[in-house]
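#struct-pred

JT: dropping the chains for the assembly here, can someone run the whole complex?
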Amino acid sequence: MYKFSKISILVLYPLVSLVLPLMTFGVLGTQLASGTSSSGSVSTLLNVNTLATIALLVLAIYYGYRTYKMQLFKKGDDGKNKATVSDYFAAAFTVFIIGGVLSNLLKLIA
Amino acid sequence: MATIFLLAAVPVLLILGTVVSGVVCIYIFAKAHGNIRSLDKKKKAVLIFFAFLPFILIGLSLTLMSHNVNEAHDKLSEDIASGTLTLHKVNESINTSETQIITLPVSSAIPQLSFEIFKEYLYVTKEGQDIKIKTKEFADIAQLTKNDIGHIGFIKFDPSVYSKDANELHFKKEKIQYTKQETAIGTAYQSDQRDGYDGSGRFVYQMFFNNVDYVMTLSVGYNSENDLRVRYSPLVSKEYANNLFKLMTSTLKLQVATPIIKKTATEPL
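RK: done, full complex below.
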């Protein structure tokens, strides 16, 4: 489950933060240029984005918790930690995910 | 063209540069397992370079933007000084005692409207449901494509999407100063909406009619000599625009047209 969450974060986060918004804008732009209006495809993309964001948040919280429990980033006697390159990227994405969700919540409250 | 291309490309380069720098820094840091001291000199140099690269790019883009705006201002001043660009200023010593009453054509969906303008200096043109207030000084100048300093329009809106409450929320969110007045005919808002240029903006009067899904908008714009858009519109001082706005809003005569119901002989009385 730990490896699954790590790989999911590494794959899903770039998709949700880069590919899906680009696809949504691309679909909107195509509709504007062609003069057609179909809210179905855009709303589907937005629904997918929302579900993926929720899934990412759950995976990020789980990954963060397991990483903390395993003390992956704690430095050993040689001054080095046990984290690999993928762990570092997954941890960075986890921070971005949780930070993004919290900032959106603050905006909603404000 | 080169300037426009640079202005468009700089934000993209900035984002790409920041993402690439972030990826490289995380990769090098991860390869060292968090112990930067164990890195060789070459990798340390690469790490430091990519860590500072986003700040360098931000600094470069801000400098470029500031330089371009200053260049545009200097060019505008040079053109005004050399006479290449004629800066028109609306004459503030006009005779405001002579006014003319303008009446909108009656429609069962749009309320009747009449108001007064400065007869000597202004005139109106009707474009569909829009009335545009124009200055007579520029009426014959073909080079000026926009010689209006304000407009009155009737805009149909979807009540489920837009409403006076949504409008008020927008004012509060954008911190726009406004006044609200409930009248027998509907709810009126007056606001001073500043725009991006210092000393430029517009006075806006909006009337949300009761039981009619139209909003009437009266807008009188003003701008300063720092406004780069004065190339394309007459320079109107804030004081003049305010006087014009006050005159027009004080002399608005609004009536809601009563729909005529036709009765036939077969209808029960």
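JT: nice. The first strand of chain B starts at residue 99 and ends at 103. Residues 260-264 of chain B have pLDDT under 50 and may be disordered.
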